[in-house]
Amino acid sequence: MVPQVFANLFLRIAQRNGLGRSGPVDGRTRLVRPVHASPGGRLSQVKDELRRRLESTRARTLSLLGHVSDEHLRVRVHSFYSPIGWHFGHVGRTEEYWTCGQALGRPLVDDHLSWLFADVADNPKDNRTTIPEREGILRYLEETRCRVLDALDEADLSEQNPYLAEGYAFDFAIQHECQHQETICEMLQLIQQRGSAERTFEPISWTPGQASEFVKVAGGSFEMGCRERNVYDNEKVAHPVEVEPFTVGRTPVTAFEWTEFIADGGYRTPSLWSACGWKWREESEAEMPEYWISSQGQWGTVGATGVRVLHPDEPAQSLSWFEAEAFARWKGARLLTESEWEWLRRRTTEKGAVHGIDGWGAKPVGQTSPSQDGVYDLAGNCWEWTSSPFLPYDGFEAFPYDGYSKDHMKGAHRVCRGGSWATSPTILRPTFRNWYVPTYRQGFLGVRLAGVS
Length: 453
Known about the structure:
Blueprint: H1 4-16, E1 20-21, E2 31-32, H2 42-65, H3 70-73, H4 84-103, H5 111-116, H6 134-154, H7 168-194, E3 214-217, E4 220-224, E5 239-243, E6 246-249, H8 255-263, H9 275-284, E7 292-295, E8 298-303, E9 306-309, H10 321-330, E10 333-335, H11 338-346, E11 383-389, E12 414-417, E13 434-436, E14 445-447, E15 449-451
Parallel strand pairs: 11-14
Antiparallel strand pairs: 1-2, 3-6, 4-5, 7-8, 8-9, 10-15, 11-12, 12-13
Helix pairs in contact: 1-6, 2-7, 4-6, 4-7, 9-10
């Protein structure tokens, strides 16, 4: 059942878009768009598609807000994150700032809230606990969205203005919102972990799962990166790459395989870890992946909606890069390079069969269509750490601002590829690059191994 406050918001935005009421269907009000002729032309179609994507993306965001209690809306639950409610206002602020402010030079609807929902140095994360309550956030989202739709109606997408050409700023805002949807899912998991609920789960008979087999992958040349206008700056510039033949796991490393690593003393063997990795392991006192629970020989995990049983064949997740590196050394293997991963991804037609928040978690591996090499789960299920530092491609130019990519391209972050169960299909493309510091393990992060030559 959609809360009334959400229903009212959907209705107001829908009416702003030219939608109206029709008769009730099964006791509910249905919204219909009046049929009328629209201007022809390719750019008109681009606008129509942007409106559709803005609407569907926002509907998903608001559905996530329904899972956040008032108790947790304005509270920080981890030093890495702002309050979860801040992320909802932030997507509205970002959308208005780039489309109305930067693209069209218009004043923003509320300067104070725009600053409060901005990710800027003079607005530290502790200050963000002063955001409005739920009704204020929803009102701000409605007001900014109406202005954004007005801007889209009036914008000339054929202009040389780089923010407007082909709808760049609107597309950027959509992708940005999709990324924060995944962040919100991560934070829901953190809230569950920090909660006071008893950490128990219904036991099952923990049976040995499948170990990931290695398959051979032919080498070759390909164009790495992307030429499309509206991808992120770090995906450009497309450039030729030569990949040598290699072997790779058919699937990401599974939970069962990770329990074997734990049982064999993987977290207690310094020789498996780099010096920095072992220092982190000792300081963090890590003994298993971040959200795992061990109870009487059974394995569970804290998920975004509560505690659940681990399936032996689901991908091991909530891993730091240091853990992934140590596991690979234990297996006598290595992490894929970023170029090897993209070469693999381009050799599959997989579109992301394992994604979506409805299931609230990863699925057992090997359920997607295999690539031509017999490799599974390359689009969705879990992100996969690579060995590659996050660095610019030759010819890289930061756009629309330095803070998204450039400020992180100093060698301290490692690249993740592939997307998780919480990643929107909007950004499940072969060239999308994600990155984190090696100590980060709060995301839906797993690993796929490559053979050592």
